[in-house]
Amino acid sequence: MSPSLVKGMADSISHRGPDDEGFYISGSVGLGFRRLSIIDLSGGHQPLSNEDGSLWIVFNGEIYNFQELRDWLIAKGHVFKTRSDTEVIVHLYEEFGEACVEKLRGMFAFAIWDEVKRTLFLARDRIGIKPLYYFLSDRFIDFASEIKAILADPEVKPEIVPAMIDRVLSFNYLPGEDTLLKNVRKLAPGTCMLLKDGVPQHRQYWDLRVERSAISLSEAERQLTSLLDESVQLHMISDVPVGFLLSGGLDSTAMLSLARGKTDSPLSSFTVGFDDSSVTDERPYARLAAKRYGTDHHEITISSKEFAKFLPEYVWHMEEPICEPPAVALFYISQVARNFVKVLISGEGGDEAFAGYQGYRNLLWLERLKSLLGPSRGVVSTTLLQLNAIFRSEKISKYAPLLTLPLESTYFSGTSNPLSFFNRQSQEIYTKQFSGSIDKRRTAEVVTRYFNGTEAQDVVNRLLYVDTKTWLPHDLLLKADKMTMANSIELRVPFLDHKLLEFAASLPGNYKVRGFTTKYIAKKVLSDKVPREILKRRKTGFPVPYASWLRNDLKDWLHDILLEQKTIERGYFKKKGVEDLLCENQKYGAHSKEVFTLAVLEIWQREFLDKTNRTVREQVVLAGEGS
Which of 52, 110, 418, 547 could form a disulfide with 59 if both were Cys (CB 3.0 to 4.6 A apart)? Predict the structure, then answer.
């Protein structure tokens, strides 16, 4: 193994670990590491070995129960040379082998090389908080926290998989283990892989399918209070300053309120706003929370120029063409936060654990209505659509056709998974050759398979399970990790502690959605911990005015990049179809997600396939400066 190759791969992701570097080279095996020091600042150098040097590990993440595990291992006779959580994993592997992952409570992606058995063991945390990619050929394996490290190996030639383009455009993100690049895959959350003699063996060691609990609501509230407090306490463990991302919503405010008294150090908080009145300004609510809990508060404002300027870097860091405009805001606020802290805590995951989105409530009521209508729902659907020709109701237009569809299909019509758009428009936008190569069943299968086996669960829990297996790890958590680590910041998500998530999954759906109230039990538990103004406000998500910017400040740039000859000559999209899409969006603002995803996809191809990074960056910077 070439030391320069391993160093080059590690250097390509130096932003993930600017504090230290380390390498282990033995024959054809090479491990490289870039460290962001959080626990045991003076120790914890990686790669790290066991006592006799027969096992070597590289590890990204945090193990929150490491002290408890360390004490147990010491009692068993293991000798430690550091205070790091990394070393705990090595000794656990000595005790339990592959089953060591089942003892860990935290977020992690790690690799252990067994010099004696000549095996490589890869593992990823249960939820997929930390990424882990690998390239496996018949001659070698490359693995890393980011794809760009794998592409630093000259043996890996980036080659696009066209079928994945349809998956990206159908979901506006890329669910599943495949990436857009041939033979570059993601290790699935809750999965480990043992490689011996070039043959991989995958094992799923965790899933969220748990037995429904018969627990009373009052007892559930008591246990949830305890679990939330415990999770935040564990996530506060750090040898460096910890800060909080405030969105102005319930979840992030709750994390801050629960952190009071759990550290002697002053707490910092951070939030972001936009110089555009078309979206709700979250900053007043974040200021309210910061004042209530006495944090050192920081906030910034982002303009369309800054948004545009960062887009190529957004694609470069995300590595997957995802429609996630809030990620740009997360990058900029992380850039500010790194001047004060190394660890940020956010409320990510609360909505997926306790059904915080209105879509869950809407689909629940839609299923109830379909059950009530029975065989007549087809007639009702047709009648409503006929009436809608007169009344022109957006809600009737959206929901009436869904009365005749099963839950699985209505899920794909939701805001987070708009498969219906490219089903409907693909013939107008895709070229004939590209359209002929697409298998819509393959596109959807990566998500539909998670509906299988969940029929016995109630509607809310079915939807939460599917989102936890797909949208959460492959979109939201990917954004959270990539944008913060781009600024050498570690993001922690206490709502996604697996014990807390398992408890949430065991609760019946009506503890989460009751009547028209979403996140019912969480709101009850947090009612005395969060200001009433925040608890009672209408959920807005994290609104970014990108739709307005794409139609105004960035209009010319958007048209240029999507209609440029280079883009059209790739052979995937008809120029007329793209022109019509842009025209419709310009008039009605109806397709912001679609045109943004198309733009991100094209930038991705230029960044990762064409190697014309400088040209694209110059185009976007000029567009931003001219707005």
Answer: 110
